[in-house]
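Each field is listed here:
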Amino acid sequence: MSAKRIVITGLGVVSPCGLNPQEVWDSVVNGRPSCGPVTRFNTRDMTCNLAAEIRDFQPDLWMEKKRAHRLDRAVRYCIAAGKQAFNDSGLEADKVDGDRMAIFEGTTVTGLENTLSQHSDFVVDGFKSVQPTTLVAAFCGAGSSELALDLGINGQATTICTGCSAGNDAIGYGMRAIRDDMADVVLAGGSEAPIVDGFYSIFAKLKVMSRWTGSPAKAMKPFDVERDGFILGEGSAFLVLEELSHALARGARIYCELLAHGQACDAYHMVALHPGGRGTIQAIERALLAGRTEAGTIDWINAHGSATLANDVIEAAAIRSAFGHSVDRIAVSATKPVTGHMVGATAAIEALICTLAIHNGCIPPTANLENPDPACALDLVRGSAREYPLRRVMNLNAGFGGKASAIILGRFAG
């Protein structure tokens, strides 16, 4: 029996560069970064003071005020992006079998803001300040559970914590749930709200965030000789994955097809990539093998592109090693300068961008890439977007503990 085909039928996003897919696409394809000074806490004693914060988000459009107040910021983003994707798909909750729907959400520190706030209150005011609702608000799996409550999803509601690769992994596990006949429809993506003083300061100490003092929009420069780190972002993005015959039976709009997922762990270091890019190479190769995809049929790679000195070089070398002679005809860009590095949600929003790139036949540029590093010798897209009838694209991410993940998306051919 042939494997079930899976298509993308819905998109939803809440991000610093847009509160819906069209806004995000406009920002990314035109290379408009969303970075600015941190406004939520004092960065005076830190080496960094920039972030990609979400502004103008109205949780009341997606949930009751009382409920929004008790939820962690990341969960509010999750509910909004998830519902938006569900609505975009044209699905109706009362017409879909809840037992045949599932949610897979990627994250890293959901609940962090509420946890730190409750701890501070306890230190100052003691036991009387403890709020029982913090138990739920600080729960790392709250996003997938809350979204399941809203949409009547009775299948799996799973939260995956694999760091910066979590969004890709959520999509990959969602794909497997459909292929294993556990679901017909899956909401898959990621959510994160890491712009919290305690967490932000750790990244500053690690010296992986940009210390740029010029125009904030120019701060993050993946693959550029002047790169000095990433800009921390926040938000959520979800894709609706649907079994093909289920989508066709209801006349759904199909953005593209989900072809494969590959993941690996290089087992080298908790915050540094293996110098030879072992995990990244294995994730790429496993995705190509799982999708029975020839390397030469990948037209574009949305790279992790963290803009750190070592990681960009390692990633570029890993791409060249995994794709061999085909690499010179594969376009590569990184979209994090526009979205910010959204940690556990970053692969999810980049998968959404890949979906729109296929749908619109256009490759986004790498914003701020003015002087490509010779050590990152790839066909790096810069300056302006490239119109191109994309056949297949790869979304590539790597993160804490050497975890690496790649998904392959392709043009739907009927």
Notes: The longest strand covers residues 256-265. The chain has a mean pLDDT of 96. The CA atoms of residues 301 and 332 lie 5 Å apart. The chain has two domains: 6-249, 259-410.
